[in-house]
Design goal:
heterodimer; A: about 150 residues; 2 strands; B: globular; disordered N terminus
Chain lengths: ~150, ~550
């Protein structure tokens, strides 16, 4: 177990620094990073602006927020409930995107790898196989089987 | 005019009855969790078992445990009380708490799971010189956790007085000691595995209780939300204002509106920097499982906060703000009082039974949260400070786990003593402060570590200490400590920690608006002022965090 300790200097996970640098420069990895950032960064900016708009309107636009839409239901309540809806929606979209796009890309990066310690590689290959079959079955049925 | 003093008549009628039921139910919960802890202790063999529950939890289990760690007494009793007394403003709190999970989901959970092992510092120190960064991250972890712990334990003491109607200081002290002793037991004996199961049990209890109350309240209004709101607004005596933002937060001037923004910012950015939440991502086998467990948590926590809206407005409508404020001016007893009313009112058996159930759920909530906090801080002490700072990475895993157990005892004991001293103070602000520190000290360093190639040791250390000192310093200069009249507190603050009359230099009660930018700025400046580059280690971190290669 002592090999597991992430001390300074040496890279862990059965690979050395050069191998990681090489992996990072592979076109597969570039694709994965781009795909990750293209979803995550704009989405983060979007939900933060959407949330801050809600807080700012709550502080500075009380008349607007208090406007009644129907019955006792006013703009503030609907706006607040929409924050819940958008949060659930983004979580669902990201789950779909991660399974459909990011996970296959990540496994293609791991496939390009050649080096690595024998024992570690065997374990990793096993994991890799699992992920692959999972990804395939997932595209057919978008079920939350992990939860069961 | 202490809340306890006013409390007696309201809950007294059904006292002995509900107190007995409450104690029996709570004893059942404690017995169950003790049994779970002992069972878990037999399965704890390696360091990964102790720190990360063997990484063998399913996403649903971990999602429930995350929810259990997150839904503290502040969110159950506190937010329900906020709705009941200040109407709409409860929503500002709960929405911030929920949206914050998107930061954790998109930017942190999977990357942290892939690249770290046991603590937040594993990722912060990944590319850096180990000792200075781990020391800073360990200190920040312990400070955040202890502040959060104090708020929960002092709250527990006050709650026992209110719910079981046992007056006097000794009851409070004994409650704090008992809560502390139980949490030390869970953590030292059960480790992460035992603590996680305690969270799961608590989350299921809390959700069940909340669902029953919500459906019950709605059924009284034929499931018409508008009727409930209109009744709540009428009974509050504040009319339409009760259903609009602004009764409590940002009521008047420029500063009070900025204070509201400051609170919102700390809530939304703080969650992804809370150490006891971050270590939960290590308890599952893969990054996919980490992501799915956050999605479960978002679902559970989101539904829970929607229910607190109904419970809070239900309390305002059915119990009434006056009766709630008479019991506790902070509104913390709104949910239990609503339970009593739903069950048939004071003096009835049904009222006593339902009040007892909800009171037991509230205690379970507090107990589970403090256990999670103790685990996070003792893990960080052992894995970061002991193994990597003092022993320079040369400690054996056995020594680490033994140290973690001792650390849990010491931290627990410190928390008990501090809570006993602080029991008379108004410490509710400590939860918001913990979020502000997490957002100012931990989040900037975490994000820069994961995404900024140029980031280095000096930047990480400067970011953590800068954010930490800024957040704590601003609170020391705020109306929380100096109670004179300010724009945010036109009537002054009689609960001020230092002085009731001196005017605070900084009128903000929530430091986030200033301290979060300071945290990011310190991390940036520290980085560019240092020549160190960590490109190679960044390549490793980036590849590992995104692909899961070499994940523990």
């Amino acid at each position: 177990m002592t090999t597991e300790s992430s001390g300074p200097g040496s890279a862990s996970g059965g690979l050395d620094n050069a191998a990681y640098t090489q992996m990072r420069q592979s076109p597969e990895f570039e694709r994965l990073r781009l795909a990750f950032r293209r979803f995550v960064f704009p989405m983060t900016v979007a939900f933060l602006i959407w949330y801050l708009l809600y807080v700012v309107l709550s502080a500075y636009a009380r008349g607007f927020m208090g406007h009644k839409l129907f019955g006792e239901i006013n703009v503030a309540l609907v706006f607040g409930l929409l924050q819940f809806v958008s949060t659930f929606l983004i979580a669902w979209l990201y789950e779909r995107y991660a399974r459909g796009t990011l996970e296959p890309l990540a496994s293609s990066v791991r496939d390009t790898r050649t080096g690595g310690g024998a024992g570690a590689t065997a374990v990793k290959d096993l994991k890799k196989g699992e992920t692959k079959t999972e990804t395939k079955s997932e595209t057919k049925s978008e079920s939350e089987e992990d939860g069961a | 005019m202490s809340p306890q003093h006013l409390a007696a008549p309201v809950l007294a009628a059904s006292d002995s009855e509900h107190r007995t039921i409450s104690l029996v139910l709570f004893a059942l919960f404690v017995a169950l969790t003790l049994w779970i802890t002992l069972w878990a202790s037999r399965q704890n063999k390696t360091a990964a078992d102790y720190y990360a529950g063997g990484r063998a939890f399913t996403p649903l289990q971990n999602g429930l445990a995350i929810s259990g760690d997150y839904m503290s007494a502040a969110s159950f009793l506190g937010i329900a009380g906020l709705f009941a007394l200040s109407g709409y403003d409860g929503f500002l709190y709960s929405i911030g708490f929920l949206v914050a999970w998107l930061v954790a989901l998109l930017l942190v959970a999977e990357l942290l799971r892939n690249s770290g092992r046991f603590t937040m510092a594993d990722v912060l120190a990944f590319r850096m010189q180990q000792r200075p960064v781990r020391a800073a991250a360990g200190i920040s972890t312990i400070v955040v956790s202890i502040f959060y712990l104090l708020a929960q334990m002092v709250g527990a003491g006050a709650l026992v007085g209110l719910l079981l109607d046992v007056d006097g200081e000794s009851a409070k002290i004994w409650t704090i000691v008992a809560v502390g002793a139980l949490m030390i037991f869970y953590v030292t004996v059960g480790g992460m595995k035992g603590t996680t199961w305690v969270q799961v049990v608590k989350a299921v209890m809390l959700m069940t209780g909340a669902v029953v109350m919500t459906v019950w309240v709605l059924s009284k209004y034929s499931f018409n939300l508008s009727d409930l709101l209109s009744d709540a607004a009428d009974k509050s005596g504040k009319g339409d204002k009760f259903l609009q933002p602004g009764l409590k937060y940002g009521a008047t001037t420029v500063w009070s509106k900025l204070d509201l923004l400051s609170l919102g910012l700390a809530l939304v950015l703080g969650t992804a920097g809370l150490p006891h939440i971050l270590i939960r991502f290590y308890t599952v086998p893969t990054s996919r499982a980490a992501r799915t467990s956050v999605n479960w948590a978002i679902g559970i926590i989101g539904v829970f906060y929607l229910m607190t809206l109904v419970i809070g407005f239900g309390a305002a409508a059915l119990v009434g703000g006056k009766a709630i404020a008479a019991q506790d001016k902070g509104g913390n007893t709104a949910a239990p009082q609503l339970a009593q009313e739903l069950g048939g009112g004071a003096g009835s058996t049904g009222g006593a039974v339902f009040l007892a159930i909800i009171a037991a759920v509230a205690f379970a909530t507090i107990l589970a949260v403090v256990a999670g906090l103790t685990l996070a801080s003792s893990s960080s002490f052992s894995h970061d400070l002991f193994a990597n700072v003092f022993k320079r990475g040369k400690a054996s895993e056995r020594d680490e786990v033994v140290t973690a157990r001792y650390a849990a005892v010491v931290i627990g004991a410190v928390a008990i003593v501090l809570s006993i001293f602080a029991r008379g103070l108004n410490v509710a602000f400590l939860v918001a402060l913990a979020f502000a520190i997490a957002a100012s000290a931990n989040l900037p360093t975490l994000l820069f570590s994961l995404f900024w190639k140029r980031f280095n040791t000096v930047g990480a250390v400067a970011g953590i200490y800068g954010g930490l000192v800024a957040a704590v310093g601003l609170v020391l200069l705020s109306p929380i400590c100096w109670g004179g009249k300010t724009d945010t507190l036109p009537k002054g603050n009689v609960d001020a920690l230092f002085s009731e009359t001196t005017v605070a230099p900084i009128p903000l009660q929530n430091p986030g608006l200033i301290s979060i930018p300071i945290g990011f700025l310190c991390a940036y400046l520290g980085t560019v002022l240092s020549k160190e580059r960590t490109d190679e280690k960044f390549a490793e971190l980036e590849v590992r965090s995104l692909t899961g290669t070499g994940a523990h």
